[in-house]
Amino acid sequence: MANIWQRKADHIDIALTKRVTMAKSTGFDDFDLVHQALPEIDLADVSLHMTFLGHVLSAPILVSSMTGGTERSYEINMHLAEAARELGLAMAVGSQRIMIEDPLTCPSFAVARTVAPNIPLYGNLGAVQLNYGMGVDAFQQAAEAIRADGMFLHLNPLQEAIQFEGNTNFAQLLSKIRILADHLPVPLLAKEVGSGIAPEIAVALAESHIKGIDVSGAGGTSWAHIEGLRATDPARQRLAEVFANWGIPTAESLALCRGQLPGFPLIASGGIRNGLEAAKALALGADLIGLAHPLLEPATHSTAAVIEVLKQFIWELRVAMFLVGAIDLETLKSRPVVKRGCQ
Ligand SMILES: Cc1cc2nc3c(=O)[nH]c(=O)nc-3n(C[C@H](O)[C@H](O)[C@H](O)COP(=O)(O)O)c2cc1C
Question: Residue 79 pLDDT > 50, yes or no?
Fold first, then answer.
C-alpha cells in the first residue's frame, strides 16, 4: 500500500505531467455578461479591492489548496505564497494530514506563512478524518502550524471512493463538523475538490456554523481521473474512468448555492481558467475565485512565473469589468448574467 507521502507526491507528478482536466464543462460558457458599448468609466479606474472574512485583498482571488509534505512542496508553497503576498491575494495550503502524522513535514506548509506573514492564509484537512480519529486538537494544531486565518475542511467522497487507500466512512459527519466549527478558534470553511456542492448541502453546512464555502465544482481538475492514473488494477481504473466527469458544474453549483444563501461567503473554483470566467462567476454571486491547477506548473519554476499567470488573469478580469461598466466588484455583482441564446 502506498504511504501518504508517496500518494501526495504522485498527485503532484500526475497533475504536472498528465491531462487531468475533465471533459465536462464548468458551465460558464453557457452564460454571457451584457456588453456595454458605453461603459461610462475609465478602465484605469476599475478597482478589484474587496474584503473577505475581514481581510482586505487587492483582487478577489484565492490560491487554492494544493500541496505540502513532500519534497517538492516546500518550494511550490513558497512560490505560491510569495506571489500571493506580492499581489495582495489569499492562499490556502494543501491537506495537512501528512503534517499531523509526521511533524517533520511541517516546514513545507509553514513556509507559506514565513514568506508571507500578512496574507490571509488558510489551512486544510479532510472532513472524513473526523471519523478516523482526528478532532478539534488536530485542526487546531494544523491552524497553529501556519498561523492560519481559517481552516478549510475538504469534502472529497469521490476521491476517497476511488482511491485504493481511501477513507470512505462519511457517516454522520455533519454533527461532528458543527462541533468542530464551534470549538475551533479560527473560522472553519468547507470546500469540495472538484465535484461541486449541491445547494441543500451548502445550507446544511451554513447551519452547522461553517463560515464560508468553496463550491469547487466540476469542469476543472478531475480527482477520479487522477486516482485512476495512480491505480494499478484494471477494475479500479475502469471505476475511475466511469466517474471521471462526475459532479455539479461549477457555474451551476455556484448559482444554486447563492440562490439558497444570499450574503453568505462563497468561493467559486473548479476549472476557472481566465479572468472572463472569473467575472461571470463574480456576477453569478461568488465573493472569491479559487485557482489551483493553473498555478501548479508555474509554482515549480519561480514566484515570477506564478505572478505572471495571476497578473494576466487579473488583467482579463479588469477588462471584463470595464466592458460591463463595473468600476468595482459591488457593481459587477449587480450586472446581469444572461443564459446564451436568451439575450
Ligand atoms: C495538484 C492538486 C492538489 C490538490 N490538493 C488538494 C488538497 O490537498 N486539499 C484540497 O482541499 N484540495 C486540493 N486540491 C483541489 C483544489 O484545491 C481545487 O478545489 C480543485 O483543483 C479545483 O480547482 P482547479 O480546477 O482550479 O484546479 C488539489 C488540486 C490540485 C490540482
Answer: yes
